[in-house]
Amino acid sequence: MQRLTLLLTALAATSSTAFVAPAATKPFTITQKTTSLYETAAEKADEISDEPEMNPDNPNLPALKGDYDWDAEYAADSDWITENVPGKIVVGDVELAAQVTALSKIEEKYRKVRQDEEYTEARIIGWVPKAEIYNSRFAMFFLAVGLLTEYWTGITIPGQIEEMARVGGFIGPDF
Fold first, then answer.
1. pTM for this prediction
2. Is 1 helix (H, G, I), strand (E, B) or coil?
3. Relative orientation angle of helices 129-153 and 157-167, to the nearest 10 degrees
4. Is residue 74 within 8 Å of residue 80, measured between CB atoms?
5. Rounded distance, CA 64 to CA 53, Å?
6. Distance (Å, whole) CA 102 – CA 96
7. In terms of C-beta density within 10 A (0-12 exposed, 13-18 middle, 19 or more buried), how is residue 148 classed?
8. ∠ CA 119-121-125 to the nearest 5 degrees?
9. pLDDT tens-place string over residues 97-124
């Protein structure tokens, strides 16, 4: 009980009124009455169109939200460049067709390269890099095993191959 009293005394001594908001002298009241543009929900529904808004520059495309005309905003600014900007250069039909053709050729080339790489990576049998890597690893492993066996038993690698052929039944027994 004595500890609780000390704790409450310490809390009361350290508390401050610096963060307490002063009491309001006037109550907050709204003097203007907000009026709605639509009196009923039916009127509001009539005003909202089900059709999507279309882009005024190209009626085949939907309108962009947040589309802003920066040229109109900064037209009076002498530093604002509106001519010869790379994104605003008008390209003729012939030049545009040439660019599209060149890009299509590049796209087709790299598509073929990508498909060839995917095909090669997917193959696991035949003359493919994966098979060659596995073959070289197994060859090095069994060469090391053959050398260690020769060191421990004294039988040469050709002698080991002959022994395996006899055990496998490929060579008949010596009588």
1. 0.33
2. coil
3. 100
4. yes
5. 9
6. 10
7. exposed
8. 90
9. 999 999 999 999 999 999 998 988 888 7
